[in-house]
Amino acid sequence: MQLIASCRNEIDALHQCFESWFNGRVPRTTEAFERMGTVLARAFVIVMPHGGKVEREPLLKVLYEAHTGRPGIRIWIENVRILAEDHELVIAEYEEWQEEGGETTSRHSTVIFRRNDAMPNGLEWLRVHETWFKEATA
């Protein structure tokens, strides 16, 4: 039970950072942005819903530049579950939902975490793979 709570907390926390950053609810400072970079492993890679792969450093640059670039975006997470785990890695999946300008999009995400006690929820993001769900309307 503890592991699923840690996964849920970490996934929620990072996406709340994204939402706050995109909406400009936090200042555009390295301190406000720090959590995003801290929890992503040096070798972090995300496979975006359209199939493109983005490594950690280019992703962080794009995210940093997106501060207040999308005011009014809302992000929430549903249906977190653990697929596999061992002493080092945890594989989980979740749904990420975004609402912006009256339109809602959703994606299925699979994440590979490395256990790391130095991280806020004991988990470090290694890799994410996202796939679009059929678009829904709000």
Number of strands: 7
Uncertain segments: none
| Mean pLDDT rating | 94
The CATH architecture designation is Roll
The geometry reads as: globular
Helicity range: 25-40%
The largest sheet is:
7 strands, mixed
Distance between the termini: 32 Å
User: Which CATH class applies here?
Assistant: Alpha Beta
Given helix and strand content, the structural type is alpha+beta
Please tell me how large the radius of gyration is: 15 Å
Number of domains: 1
Helices, by number, come to 3
Query: In percent terms, what proportion of residues is strand?
Result: 35-45%
Account of the protein in words:
Strand 3 (74-85) and strand 4 form a beta hairpin. It contains 3 helices and 7 strands; from the N terminus they run ααββαβββββ. Strands 1, 2, 3, 4, 5, 6 and 7 form a 7-stranded mixed β-sheet that branches. The chain has one domain: Nuclear Transport Factor 2, Chain: A (Roll), CATH 3.10.450. The N and C termini lie far apart (32 Å). It is of the alpha+beta class and 138 residues long. The model has no long low-confidence stretch (mean pLDDT 94).
List the helices and strands and how they pair.
Layout: H1 2-22, H2 30-39, E1 40-47, E2 53-55, H3 56-65, E3 74-85, E4 89-100, E5 103-115, E6 123-132, E7 136-137
Helix pairs in contact: 1-2
